[in-house]
Design a protein that fits this description.
7 helices, globular, alpha/beta, Dna Topoisomerase Vi A Subunit, Chain: A, domain 2
Length: 197
């Protein structure tokens, strides 16, 4: 027995990342069984976020202000920019409480197979920020996959001509991980990124 409205809701929910058809259906039935005001609060929160949240014109992370609070924080140094692929990566880096510079969101990674080239990312905007003269180091914190590595290498090459230090975040064995279960590429990166104690 198919109920058109539930199928439509399930289809929309299944478009969320990491949500399969069965999970989407479970969410749909949950939303139908909670009090109406609770379901409407969710709908209002989605509508409000879509209406009020936009990309920061400087770093391209999400904000509901004119500029994001990181770009307007006078305590953060402008000498170091951390380059990430997506706004959610900014939040991941901020959770460490170790970085006190600025961010630059590329909005993706180089992926020739998917038709994403340098012109599709915010690389030119990064280079313009580097031309200000305040930037001394760019930390390339792109994902440790083929596309992320290619993106980091491409940006590092462009920064050499600007006399700006390009660094790459270290990749390796996670805390609590066992070497026997770690893949070769991760171990190789861990060896490559080793440091003196």
């Amino acid at each position: 027995m198919a109920i058109v409205s539930i199928d439509k809701l399930t289809t929309q929910l299944s478009r969320l990342p990491g949500v399969g058809r069965k999970t989407a259906q479970r969410f749909a039935y949950h939303l139908l069984s909670v009090p109406e005001e609770q379901a409407l609060e969710l709908a209002d929160a989605i509508t409000d976020a879509r209406k009020n949240v936009h990309r920061c014109p400087v770093c391209s992370t999400f904000t509901d202000q004119e500029l994001c609070e990181i770009c307007t924080d006078p305590k953060r140094t402008e000498a170091v920019i951390c380059v990430v692929c997506d706004p959610k990566d900014v939040m991941a880096m901020e959770k460490t409480r170790e970085f006190n510079g600025r961010y630059h969101v590329l909005n993706g990674s180089l992926s020739p197979m998917n038709g994403i080239g340098p012109g599709d990312l915010r690389i030119n905007e990064l280079l313009q920020r580097c031309d200000s003269g305040d930037v001394k180091e760019v930390i390339l914190a792109t994902n440790p996959d083929v596309e992320g590595e290619a993106t980091a290498a491409y940006i590092a090459k462009l920064l050499k001509s600007k006399n700006i230090t390009a660094t790459r975040i270290a990749h390796g064995v996670p805390i609590g991980g066992n070497l026997e279960y770690t893949d070769e590429v991760t171990l190789a990166k861990a060896l490559e990124g080793r440091r003196i104690l």
